[in-house]
Design a protein that fits this description.
The structure is a homotetramer of 354-residue chains. The first copy, chain A, has 354 residues and is α/β, with parallel strands linked by helices. The first copy, chain A, folds into 2 domains: 10-134, Rossmann fold, CATH 3.40.50.720; 159-322, Dihydrodipicolinate Reductase, domain 2 (2-Layer Sandwich), CATH 3.30.360.10. Helix content of chain A is 29%, strand content 19%. Chain A has 11 helices and 13 strands. The first copy, chain A, has a 7-stranded mixed sheet with strand order 8-9-7-10-13-12-11. In chain A, strands 2-1-3-4-6-5 form a 6-stranded parallel sheet, with helices on both faces. The longest helix of chain A has 16 residues, at 324-339. The model of chain A is unreliable at 1-6 (pLDDT under 50). Chain A binds chain B through residues 182, 184, 186, 188, 203-204, 206-212, 214-215, 236-238, 240, 242, 244-249, 251, 253, 255, 289, 291-293, 296, 304, 306, 308, 310-311, 313, 315, 317, 354, and chain B through 182, 184, 186, 188, 203-204, 206-212, 214-215, 236-238, 240, 242, 244-249, 251, 253, 255, 289, 291-293, 296, 304, 306, 308, 310-311, 313, 315, 317, 354.
């Protein structure tokens, strides 16, 4: 276990704390009883108080953003969350690790085990491939044991979280054709991050649905890597993300060809068995789909299972809040595992509807 | 050709003219230079003026809604649009036809050629199966010739319109596996109609995406019938509709397994050839997807084509305005064909963005 | 203090627990450490589990809704929240009170002290006017002392909460003309409640803003009563509520004529002094307005103060989450006061943005 | 009348044709039977086709954007619309005028008659004050006669359009206190224009309502100038604009103190009389408010009148589509007047609802 600060609380630093992911980390951690936010960095807002930029946090987080100084961050933190764009993340994380700090990285830089695959999809040379082996893919439902002792946790992408959790119980079976997986995902616009961009202006996104990065989205190698590890086979998926006019929420609808039609209720039972000790996976009753508004602001992944006897396919629906289980909530869950806290600490909340 | 009224204009009646489909018919027809709206019925609003119920039409359509009296409708109309729920539509349409009037029916009652299939999916005995043979499925891009002389046009459903237009050029080829078609559709909430229903209240739909009627939606037999006719084989599709928080717009994302990878640009050329004389089908340039906000309030169907070489699939995106090409615009297009008007009369407008 | 149940927790019953207000009460109370939800009634959903109706609460509140049986509610509850429509509320609350139970009423039935005024605005005879005197208007910032010993708390309306909190520090001064108060409010659609109603269907509300009940809204007498009590004069206000296309959030923009221009910063200081011990009122810095997204899901009322020297008016902005500080959060705050709990218990959360 | 091009059509150029205002001009003009778009400029998109940037116009406007070259614009156009930011507009308009071309300017540069007032509110020296006198404020309902022979039309702002039309019939009477006018406006986000700006990103605007530029918005001097001219007195107004989560639409709610209560129906009659020949002003029946969704995409201004006897105030609601009557539709209306076309040419459409 880490060295605690004098009040016995873990000191947590967040690098890049003014994007939506960083902001959501702040919001969740501000209520966490065992940690203390010790430093927040933001180039854009250095020397401004967090609550002057985000008045939602007024009275909760009134400390100031700092400029990015690695030594100061190392000095002030036991654990560091990096909420930086890919490439930028790997330019600094090795330094944090060398200083003995633990890191939970929200970027994609340490998710892909094979640096060549990373380089192909991210058009970017990997500058610390030696860390890829020890980095742990931070999906607790699959890698809980490894996360416990990780120095570097690669927090999963939002789309991969929804897809891998929905597919894990199925991909290990003989029930499906592994080459038939088609994923159609729908995301709220907050997933696009918090930078001025014409494509994500209100009037461009409202009253519209659009597919993007069809078959070339960077979450594809991440999904394929994890499904391949789980199945022991080389898995390829078709993946189309869509942007829809809402702020939070991500739904993946997944189509898989069945080798044969299972008995009624069999799949649901299998999923219940698979996830029976999981605090953050909820299964919809037979025939119900997972809707995003049931998980808003919560760390849940809701999964619905539908068997289509006519076409011999199973249709899965998997809903998360892209900013929580799809990013910052999952990162806090990983932190809880790292430090031996109750896994849902700071994350105990139902979905907020309406 | 029909008997014209003294001013030389076609007299048009709309039965069930206070739902969104009826309202959209009124809006489009109010600007049509060759016809005259002669009667509008609505049980809910009988004796109220249209513009007192829908002030958007103030100064345009100030006539009053009438109660439903078949004789009066027959007496006042050359052509009758029926915008009634299924079952109710077929209870009255035979009477209209018997009186010699032409009918364009917005319901599903005469779309399915096989009454047994209709009965299975609609849980409803068909009371005039003898009309199914002469009823013409009102998709002009496929059935223009038949529509010209039809007495009864069965106006297609919104989802089928988007799917059949996207698939037609492909289904006739040897390029695809016909048993691999998966359709994932996203619709605005106006598609659910205009009746008070908790499921479609603002606070239930906003900030949410949800799948519904997974694998059991009533548009499935309609899609399968038409794709089967086009291909000459028995086609089955997986179909999942979703509701997303917008008013208008419908996007279908369609996944199909390719037998082999076509040369770059080949598919787009094929589609361009197929649709070269069509006024209402627009093809996106290579690699672009069809977005719904480009077709809003217009009668266009925009189609995007993406080939995924890695997974050997083609991914189609097909966007329509569910109330226009997906309903009332298409009905007016059918009317124009019936009467030999220019096919885009009353429908000449680009998409309205933003 | 009440008799506790054996585990030392207050037993709480909610009557009418399937509207948005009831649902929000359930959500907040499900995390409250000192109380236990003992019974929930809903005519619509009797015998269904709460989480089957609202899967957002899956794993949190899986108990079943009960039919409305007054004896059972009395038997099972120490404290009863009534989330019923007006008129219905006052038909049952006297029975609860007679049995010795405390009641927090979400309806308007006991807010107006003068039964004739109630009758004029609600077109409804008051059937228990004898209770009006002892009922306490549940706005803790004004009536904390009285709430502590209340048997019946009349929980304020959403609009009045935003207006009274914004006006209270000002109405007691000589700075303003009391006859010049104009309130223009904007509310999310969840404020309209959870019943099927055409007016609140998604497609009717989206992409629209509309004023309603101009100068005749039932919250007017409630606002006027409280401002009159605070000022010691008979206050009349102009009030126009608007519905805007969002789910949660309520902003009141208030215009008041100033007798003279105060020194810069004076008003903000005055407000800070007035609210210095209040846990749920936050003041925006000079020149900033209160925006609803900063208070979403929280119990805060954010207030912004702008002085317009040119026109000699002060413009106040007051933002709440209509379902929290505007309804259920405030009710829980009242419960905390009633039972001597920390006032923010179960309500400790910042606004959730984005 | 102007010199026509050989086909007898007016050649129209649009400078700055890739913002929302420019785009809306293109959309409306693309259907106008008497003019021809001859040149479109956009720095951002020079050499790209309009329909590749805005696929909504595919098949309608496939010409290319040009770089900004004043001579080319002058050479190719009979009439020039300038859809540039203020300051930039006045740097080029004098050149256009000198060459003998007519200009309709969408910016604020020639709306304010007094250059000192302009300079105070726009923090900007006016570089062609000699043109202010001959520039005509392009509100046809007030200045139709002057527009007919104008060389330079200063197209009004969106907020002023809604306010001046609502106030004009009243401001000329003795019925009101002229110093009591309070305007509370709510606008869709398209009003903020089409540039990447964090403040107008979807996730920042959705589920939020916020006031901005309270008492300091630049449309204030424009409103005050025109109301002062109409009344013959020096008018000051309180004005608070708000942004609400919708794309199009603008509602102004206006509060005015009455000297005495007029007889029922009197005000509506007065307004009907005042606007009896106006094609684009519609009056709501007694007691109904103007809602924005009734005017969407149309050039109407809908006005509702409510008298509050209790507080002796009149409450006006005035709804426009900010991009049409609030900008580009009005500009086309001005063009029609300039050239003697039917005033509603190219603008004949009802509101589009839903």
């Amino acid at each position: 276990m880490e060295i605690y600060n004098i009040e016995g609380m873990i000191k947590v630093g967040i690098v890049g704390a003014s994007g939506y992911t960083g902001l959501e980390l702040i919001r969740i951690l501000s209520k966490h009883p065992e940690i203390k936010i010790s430093i927040l960095t933001s180039e854009r807002y250095a020397n401004s108080s967090v609550s002057s930029i985000f008045p939602s946090l007024l009275g909760w987080v009134d400390m100031k953003y700092k400029d990015f100084l690695p030594e100061e961050i190392i000095d002030k933190s036991d654990l560091i969350f990096t909420a930086l764009p890919h490439k930028k993340a790997m330019s600094i994380i090795p330094i944090f690790l060398k200083s003995g700090k633990r890191v939970i990285d929200m970027s994609a830089d340490y998710r892909i085990k094979d640096p060549h695959i990373y380089e192909r999809w991210y058009s970017n040379i990997h500058t610390s491939p030696e860390l890829l082996n020890s980095a742990v893919y931070g999906l607790p439902e699959i890698y809980r044991a490894e996360i416990k002792s990780a120095k570097l946790v690669a927090n999963p992408g939002c789309y991969p979280t929804s897809v891998i959790l929905a597919m894990a119980p199925l991909i290990k079976t003989d029930l499906i054709y592994n080459d038939s997986i088609i994923v159609d995902s729908k995301s709220g616009i907050s997933g696009a991050g918090r930078s001025p961009d014409l494509a994500f202006q209100f009037a461009e996104c409202n009253e519209n649905v659009r597919a993007y990065s069809i078959s070339v989205h960077r979450h594809i190698p991440e999904i394929e890597q994890e499904l391949s590890i789980l199945s022991g086979e080389d898995i390829k998926v078709s993946f189309t993300p869509h942007l829809i006019p809402m702020t939070r929420g991500l739904l993946s609808t997944i189509y898989v060809n069945l080798r044969e039609i299972p008995m009624e209720g069999y799949l649901l039972e299998r999923y219940k068995e698979f996830y029976k000790y999981e605090p953050f996976v909820r299964l919809m009753e037979e025939g119900r789909s997972a809707d995003t508004h049931n998980v808003t602001t919560s760390n849940y992944c809701d999964i619905g299972i539908n068997v289509d006897v006519r076409t011999k396919r199973v249709v899965l629906t998997s809903a998360i809040d892209n900013l929580v289980k799809g990013a910052s909530g999952q990162a806090v869950q990983n932190m809880n595992i790292l430090y031996g806290f109750r896994e849902d600490m700071g994350l105990e909340c139902p979905g907020i509807f309406p």
